[in-house]
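Worked Example 4.2. Consider the chain below.
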Amino acid sequence: MFDDRPTPMIRFPRLARFVCATVSLRRHLHAAAALSFALATSSAHAAITVTDDSGATVTLSAPAQRVISLAPHVTELLYAAGGGPKMVGAVSYSDYPPAALQLPRVGDNKALDLERIVALKPDLIVVWRHGNAQRQLERLRELRVPLFFSEPRRLDDIAVSLTKLGQLLGTSPTADAAASAYRNDIARLRTQYSQRPSVSVFYQVWDKPLMTLNGEHMLSDVIALCGGRNVFAGLQPLVPTVSTEAVLAANPDAIVTAAPGATRPDTPLPQLDTWRAWPRLAAVANNNLFAIDGDLLNRPAPRLAQGAQLLCEDLELARSRRK
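Applying the procedure from the previous section yields the following structure tokens:
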């Protein structure tokens, strides 16, 4: 007869250790698999949280799939961050990249088409903090759609914006690559030009009335990047009005303005030609009146690096013309 009673383990010590080790290993494998599954599930549904340029916290339960841009520079940032396929609407003058021209329009910074915005069912709206009227912003908040406020103020803020938008869009690899490329372009220009002999610059925003930008504006950073000095950096507010006499007294080495298509050398520049009435003005005497395509200088987006390149080349030309 067979004895079917349990055999005492003490009679088979090696077998006992093997069985115990096997059971322990299986338990660890099951636990590891359960933990891996739990982490994967948690990661798949983890909330995305970033801080926008107003200091507010923006949280999405999942990457945005239907995005509306309320400023041309925002449109450029979103496309550069890899969000083109997720764009469902944009404001007027959102003309870059060319694909943005095909987006449905939702008004402009003065008058938003709220009904159109609602109809497009966005799950993220990216707003120009000081470009969209406060009354309209309050109406947008009533829609209970997450708002990300965009207003890059310093050169590196553009790269930071790309990174944050990439997180919200779920396109971080593309966004991070764009941010890195932009930073590299700016670093190259800084190395090449920032320590060159200083060139004093008057940046003319508008001619009637005569307006400029102070040292808090990003464009003043671009001027410094190129080894220039903004002659009205110390004025207030951000976009101060100045007199012709003040410009003559500052006697800048170069006068720069922005104009559509102005990167072509044959572009007529009546807004700058008026300065030729003062032939002793240094900028006029040395023919240092420059204009650059405004979309490359005035939009805080990756193409600003191209505008900076052009400005640096102009200021280098001004150095070579000094008498």
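The CA atoms of residues 248 and 281 lie 7 Å apart. The chain has a mean pLDDT of 87. Compare this with Example 4.1 before moving on.
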